[in-house]
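Entry for the shared binder. Reason: the reviewer on the internal report wants the predicted structure included alongside the sequence.
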Amino acid sequence: MQEYYEQFFHQFKRDKYLRYLKYLQPALGKKYKFASTPIFISTAQYDRLTAVTGRIVRLLQDELYQKSVYDITWFLPQYPMQKHDYFGCVDFHIQPDSERIIETNLFAPGFSSFMELIETHFFEIFGYFGEQVSPGFEKELVKAVTKNFEKKQVAIVDIDAYNQYNFDEFKYIKKLLANYDVESCVAPAENVGISETGNLLFEGKEFNRIYNRLITYDWEQHADNVKNYSELFKNNPDMFFTNPFGWKLGDKRILPVLSNLNKQPFGLTKKDVEILSKTVLKTKLLNEFSNLEECVEEFGLPRRVILKPLDNYAGRGILFKPSNKKLKEIIEKEKEKFIIQEIFPAGKIPYIMPDGNITEAKFDVRIVFMNAEVVGAYGRSYQGSITNFSGDVGGIAPVVVV
């Protein structure tokens, strides 16, 4: 990919990058960080990523797998997953000739609402160095949110919605909906009511469709504060896009399942398992181990692993390369809260700063699916041990297939 980065750097100018940001900020505000360098990947590798993602979606749809998740824990009435509920993503770490799954999500992926926007403006300003991967996504999103354009009153709902990091994304979704003459609002889940007709009621207006952005983990943690919202789901689950059960299907518990497909394939074919096995990292529930010695025997030294909390998200609670002492302590006191996974290092790309200086950034690639089909991708570049946007380098980046 080096040649493509060199071509891109050759024509890069700071004023182009500022123009790119200027296009985005009226739509998205200034909160989000957008990379000044795209992520180039080959057609062959992108095809592998989409093939793997398709097979994970197939696993997520398997009845036996869904029953195994439901039997563990669930706090709402179970309502069957529909095709439109399969909206989520698979995240990959990538090396030049290989890739590994680091996470899955069966929930609206953060930032996905504007992946077509950043891709379009990036290509318009910097030139077409390869193939766009997300054209038409915005229309498909509106189509899904409005149930094929049938529902014209949509509430975008999250807990404490106005103070969420994604609030500007919610406002952008409102603009997309307005383009199709759909009335919408952003509503805090704790402040919604129920109308006489059974619809969501907010600030005196009724809404007959809910774009649910309340992560199920937060929903369960704040159940006492969102009783009306829970009642809406119990009474009319078909009003919701998407089914909150999807979050549980795609949370970190699926990673040990992927690591064990040779023993329990959950309806996948031998070919499916063969393809997935090439991209799956060894992962286990930490409570499978009685002590540090058993863990080391299975995974090697702690510097080779990462611990991920089962019921958290956005990088919270992750322990990267824990010390022997820390791993021993967690096994003894809270092993039921974590999975343990072998480390596959994030790939690195040359990264041009706005001033023209070239440095290096790590990156991951997120393949997005909707209606159980791949619909696009975007990347995240950064520096540090895990994905973050806290430094000067990196941000949300378009994926360019070459």
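Summary line for the report: The first helix runs from residue 2 to 11.
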